[in-house]
Design brief:
Blueprint: H1 7-25, H2 27-35, H3 38-45, H4 50-57, H5 61-74, E1 78-79, E2 86-87, H6 90-96, H7 107-117, H8 119-128, H9 139-161, H10 166-173, E3 177-181, H11 187-195, E4 200-205, H12 208-220, E5 227-231, E6 241-247, H13 256-266, E7 267-278, H14 290-308, H15 322-331, E8 336-342, E9 346-352
Parallel strand pairs: 3-4, 3-6, 4-5, 6-7
Antiparallel strand pairs: 1-2, 7-9, 8-9
Helix pairs in contact: 2-7, 3-4, 4-5, 7-9, 9-11
């Protein structure tokens, strides 16, 4: 079909491509900077010359200078008027150099690198319709996922999300029992255990290396008497609970309905499920944004292939939307679902029995 090209639309599309290529081009530099500790070195040494930075970081000056210029162009590094002194502003340190910062975003680049490593397997899955086993993903995916979600959980879980569900906070303050399904490296479970000293917690995940790390963290935090982690899937864990949580994971499961039904069977009387999911609208047209682009892309490389590797393989995707998620929970036997919180990145759904 012959179409007339609108030159203004063409230029806008070309510029959009350039913006995305520019953002993608800096990906390996961010990973190298993180791997070699360059952000920490610059935070401690700056303002400094490229040579002083290279000396502090233990790297070659010519590579250091080019790396600094690239980051300055991206707005990820600061400089003086003559480009002779480089440093990280307080904001840049919070986003790139402080591992405990609630604004840390460096983990996103780990996920992207992991996705690049996974291209061959996902390309084959495109052709066959099969999935890719979660345990076969590149190590950067697991590391990046934990680091990517860490700031949001530290900023929101206790201060914004839990207060929106008074019944859940009451249960935990009274010494209730919570199971965190799909806990990954266990940060969400650890934060809850630290905040609710009378309650007990179990985290489960299918990735055994992550579970091993989580148990080490619980032990180091002195919480192993009431916090433990086990390797299990969403339909094989034991115990009975007042609260079961699915934090950014239900959409990754092959059979989310089966997982929801199983969770329902493990709840004590009056128990509840809490879902944390990526923010999304119910219709794709309302997800056409920068955040939507990110989540659809992450979902194509991670969520969909993970789900399709499991039984049923429903492949909800990261932008399933609140209505579809609520329908699944209602079909599983929950009496009521409610989106109690939503911001640009996450939504919280309370499901009661």
């Amino acid at each position: 079909m012959n179409q007339i090209i609108d030159k203004s639309k063409l230029r806008a599309l070309q510029w959009s491509v350039m913006e995305n290529v520019s953002a993608s081009a800096i990906l390996p530099l961010m990973r190298i900077g993180d791997e070699l500790g360059l952000f920490t070195a610059l935070a401690e040494a700056g303002p400094c010359s490229s040579q002083a930075f290279a000396d502090a970081a233990g790297i070659d000056e010519r590579y250091a200078r080019e790396w600094l210029h690239a980051l300055c162009a991206a707005g990820y590094c600061s400089h003086d008027d003559d480009f002779t002194a480089f440093y990280l502003s307080a904001e840049q340190q919070a986003v790139f150099a402080d591992e405990d910062s609630k604004a840390l975003m460096i983990g996103a680049f780990d996920i992207l690198v992991g996705n690049v490593h996974g291209i061959d397997a996902i390309t084959e899955a495109f052709k066959t319709g099969d999935g890719v086993n979660y345990g076969d993903f590149h190590a950067c995916v697991f590391k990046g996922t934990a680091r990517f979600f860490k700031p949001s959980y530290k900023s929101n879980l206790l201060e914004k999300w839990m207060p929106k569900i008074p019944a859940a906070t009451e249960k935990l303050e009274a010494g209730g029992r919570l199971c965190d399904v799909g806990c990954g490296k266990g940060l969400s479970t650890l934060l809850l255990a630290e905040h609710y000293p009378k309650a007990s917690f179990v985290g489960i995940d299918i990735h055994e290396p992550s579970i091993d790390e989580a148990n080490e963290e619980a032990d180091q935090a002195g919480l192993s008497d009431r916090l433990c982690y086990d390797a299990a899937d969403a339909e094989s864990y034991g115990g009975d609970y007042d609260i079961i949580t699915f934090f950014d994971c239900l959409h990754d499961m092959g059979d989310p309905l089966g997982a929801a039904k199983y969770a329902r069977s493990r709840l004590r009387e009056g128990g509840m499920v809490i879902l944390i999911e990526p923010s999304a609208a119910d219709h794709p047209s309302d997800n056409m944004s920068v955040i939507g682009q990110m989540y659809y892309s992450f979902s194509t490389m991670g969520c969909v292939p993970t789900s399709k590797s499991q039984k049923v393989g429903l492949a909800l995707g990261a932008q399933a939307g609140p209505q579809r998620l609520s329908d699944i929970m209602l079909e599983a036997g929950f009496k009521d679902t409610e989106v109690v919180f939503k911001n640009a990145s996450n939504m919280v759904i309370s499901c009661t029995t």
